[in-house]
Structures are given as C-alpha cells and as structure tokens.
Structure to design on (227 residues):
C-alpha cells in the first residue's frame, strides 16, 4: 500500500507570494492533518480535515488555509508569505478522526521563503 | 512555559548502550502518549503508542508513562547506529474541536559504532 505523498518536496518562494501544497493520504484514510515543523518551534498542528470539512484548527493566522476533496486529497495554502513561514510542512493521514495511534506522516514539503 | 518539554540534545551514545529519552508535560488532560522517530529528510514515524499510565514494550523499545509526575520516557535497549534519528514525544487530549495533539521539540540521538 502506498504511503502518504506530498508534492512538491521542495519549494522556494519570495515574501508576499502565495503557495499551495498538496497531500495524498493513504488509500482509505479519510482524515488529513497538517503540521508545520521548524527548528525553533518543533512540530505544530495547523488543521485537520475529515470528510471535506475542517474539524480542528491550531493557532495559526488566517493566511494559512486548507481544503479537502471528495477523494480525501488535501491542499494547504499560505498567502502573503513571510520569512518566518520557512519550514517543513508535514501532512499526516489516518483512517478516522482522532486516530492518533494510526497517524502516518508524509515526507513533507520543505518551503523556503526568501 | 510550553505544554510539552523535551530536551533537544544532541545525545550521543556508543553502540549497545541503553538510551533514555524523556518528556514532561503540564496538561493533565493528556490521555494518549506517543513516540515518533524521524530520520533526516523524512516524516515522523510512529514508534510507540500508550493510553494512560503504564509501560509498553515492543522489541528493543519500552515506553513508560507516569501521569502522576506528568513524565513519559522511551528506553532503547542495545542501541544501534540505525537508531540515530530525532525522537519526538507527542500527547493528545480530547477537546471540543476533536483531538488536540502537542509534540515535543524532539531529541537528536547519535549512536556511534
């Protein structure tokens, strides 16, 4: 069974631009969560999607948004990029909501903002 | 104060040593406790999962949870160079929005051959 895939793997943008990251969960998984990982703050929860609806949200500004499609694939968007948005963005999928014991992470998208 | 505290290390040990990794937390609502391993340029991989207090063993890995002290540990026996990675603790609680999961900063472990 294929794992969680994320595209692109690497991205370089400049301040003020916007970016869209994509995540394809494991087949059959319906919950997708997004995280931001930085050396200073560690892994921080962005939001969770289940059945095309945002179910849970972390403490990030409104510039960070996401959506989930009917096939459970998810995208996250960051608008008006800031230098501090440089991070590894990880997507994790699980079978159901709150399945912390079966949450599988993708390899991440490394975003660099210049 | 962060909800979950984890020493970032790095921790360097010789091959075969017993490794002890720890996290402390402040929120008594946490019920689910996890340890993840993250290799360079990879996403975190779930190693151990424990519900509430107690011990759980899986091969060379043992997870311990002491809710009275708000302290969790991961022990690695007979450590191998392939165990060199960053180890993240994570804890979950149920809130009105669903599950809230908080990760520790991660401890970098180096096992020298």
């Amino acid at each position: 069974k294929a794992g969680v895939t994320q595209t692109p793997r690497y991205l370089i943008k400049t301040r003020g631009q916007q970016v869209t990251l994509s995540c394809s969960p494991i087949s059959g998984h319906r919950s997708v969560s997004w995280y931001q990982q930085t050396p200073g703050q560690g892994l921080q929860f962005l939001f969770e999607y289940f059945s095309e609806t945002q179910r849970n949200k972390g403490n990030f500004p409104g510039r960070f948004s996401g959506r989930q499609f009917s096939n459970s694939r998810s995208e996250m968007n960051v608008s008006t990029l800031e230098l501090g948005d440089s991070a590894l963005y990880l997507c994790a999928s699980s079978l159901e909501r709150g399945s912390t014991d079966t949450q599988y992470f993708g390899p991440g998208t490394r975003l660099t903002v210049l | 104060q962060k909800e979950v505290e984890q020493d970032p290390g790095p921790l360097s040990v010789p091959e075969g040593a017993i490794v002890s990794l720890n996290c402390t937390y402040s929120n008594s609502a946490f019920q689910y406790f996890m340890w993840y391993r993250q290799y360079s340029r990879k996403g975190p991989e779930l190693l151990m999962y424990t519900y509430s207090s107690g011990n759980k063993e899986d091969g060379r890995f043992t997870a311990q949870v002491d809710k009275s002290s708000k302290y969790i540990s991961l022990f690695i026996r007979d450590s191998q160079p392939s165990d060199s990675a960053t180890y993240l603790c994570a804890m979950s609680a149920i809130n009105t929005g669903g599950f809230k999961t908080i990760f520790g900063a991660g401890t970098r472990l180096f096992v020298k051959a």
User: Anything to note?
Assistant: Chain B has a mean pLDDT of 91.
